[in-house]
Specification:
Tmem163, zinc, synapse, Cation efflux family protein, mainly alpha, elongated, endosome, 212 residues, Alpha-lytic protease prodomain-like, 82% helix
Length: 212
């Protein structure tokens, strides 16, 4: 039963709202399974290819997993109808963005310092191609749910999924362009996504992630 106070403050907290909340939790659980495989295979491929963007993309899966866990926590039990739980989850997702941003920058600096250049690998191409297709679909679905639920935490997790898809596209482009001598595309993509992560962290912290 939905508390009267919650319905007054959040008119969307109806049967439809609760159904969307369950859908958000289910998508987050499915994402955790996906990310476990993606991170493991992506790291193996990235180390083999000496690709900072591929390694960064694979490790970003761990940050995405944290965001998914946060959303699962947010929509479990009595927290489902708790405004305080949404605030806590939203800020936790913001922190996960801020963990990703500095990692990408530091990893780029390290690889540039030691002279690593990305090399194409069959495993890396397969894993990133799958994420290029799947992650945007998950991200868009979560952002739509986040808007209906007025949940910046859910929308923020969806944004991280979209970033994962963007990183996959950048990694694939970087691996190909490196064969043409454009080695800088790979680290440039990672730095650009670090900037996006920092910006999205600010938006999530302020509760704006569900509105754009």
């Amino acid at each position: 039963m939905v508390p009267d106070q919650w319905v007054h403050e959040h008119p969307a907290a109806s049967a439809g709202w609760l159904r969307d909340a369950r859908a958000a939790r289910t998508l987050s659980v499915a994402t955790l399974v996906w990310l476990a495989a993606e991170s493991t295979l992506g790291l193996a491929a990235g180390v083999s290819a000496h690709s900072v963007a591929l390694i960064g993309w694979a490790l970003s899966a761990l940050v995405e997993a944290a965001a998914s866990l946060i959303v699962v926590w947010r929509f479990t039990g009595s927290r489902t109808l708790s405004p305080n739980a949404e605030t806590t989850a939203r800020r936790a997702v913001a922190v996960s963005f801020w963990l990703l941003a500095p990692y990408l920058v530091v990893h780029v600096a390290h690889d540039l310092d030691v002279g690593h250049r990305p090399e194409p690998t069959a495993l890396g191409i397969v894993v990133t191609s799958l994420s290029l297709v799947g992650m945007p679909l998950l991200g868009l679905a979560k952002r739509r749910l986040g808007a209906r639920l007025a949940s910046a935490a859910t929308s923020g997790e969806g944004t991280q999924n979209l970033m994962c898809g963007a990183m996959a596209a950048g990694v694939l482009a970087g691996l190909w362009l490196n064969t043409l001598g454009w080695w800088w595309v790979d680290p440039a993509m990672a730095v650009a996504l670090a900037v996006v992560a920092a910006r999205e962290g600010v938006r999530a912290w302020r509760g704006h992630a569900c509105c754009h």
